[in-house]
Amino acid sequence: MGSTDLTSTPERLAELRDSIAEVDRSLLELLHRRMELASEVGRVKTGTGQPIMVPEVHNRVLTRARQHADSCGVSEEVMESIFKAVMRGSIERQHRVGVAMKARVGTRLLILGGAGDMGAWFHNFALLLGHQIDIVDPAMTPLPAVEGRFGTLDDIIDLDLYEAIIVSVPLNRTIEVLRQLIERRPKGLVIEIASIKDNLSTVLTEAQGAGLKVTSLHPMFGPRQSPYETLTFALAYREDSRIERRRLETWLRHPYSQIVPVPFDHHDRLMGWLLGFAHLLGMVFGSALSRSGLGVQELQACASTSYNRQAAAAMHVLGEDPDLYYDIQRLNPHRGDVYQATREALDELIDAVQSDDREEFREVLGHARNFLISDL
Fold it and tell me: pTM for the full model?
């Protein structure tokens, strides 16, 4: 009888799994220790006024991790992803410690539209930063009265209690709400976060003339965004971007937030492409597929990487509030330029294919590629 190969027995497999579980326990203990050290770093940084996120240190840790990838038997990409997750946890831990230490001096904020998706995001974000939050939303009207929850602005006697008021209402109601604030003339900073700004120009001028401090901010992400991922805010400044930025930074300071100043008059042109065009492609993708005569299960079964990426982007748009995306298209004064360029680009590609002009097709794609990498 031949000897049994123990390397393939169930007992050997169970033994290996037990060994892995033991290593996992050791890793968890080390991770716990790392997070405790991160907490202490957070206390030191908060006490000395240092920033939580230091890019140089972040990059140094990633470089060190990549250098050890081969010795650990994994790719540099895998090692980097592991350490990115660990550092994200460390930064979150440091930030929470800093918030807890500063909570006694948190700002009191009011969010108009606080029960909506984006209003709820700002609510949670502001709480994370240690602020005190009240909300106004019609959804509160039929509910039992709760401190800090109001159905209308008229329910609040003194708006001067708030150091900042965030206007997070549907685009088609922003002007109406800003006019209500003009009548009340609060002393705190008013922050409107509409995706389209041009139609607000007149009412913002009225607000400024009435003595209101108004800032136009645009979060370049949706309500599902994690506060521990990059948070880009476009600041559509009307006068001095430095002054407006300083006003925001008193309550918006966060390790992952970045404020990008954009001239107010340029904002909607930029958003015509960053939002309007990107949304349009997603809507056209889904609408065209619905005319294909093919079943979605058949498409998914054989889906390519390119298809899956496009479908995911399209569903991000198609799964949201259609009224929001309609208003983003309708209210943008630069939509005509976007539509015209889209038609011309599509016609150019179709003509090249139908006229059997390979060189023209290559030239069109080369021009597009060169544009996208021109400043990289």
Answer: 0.77
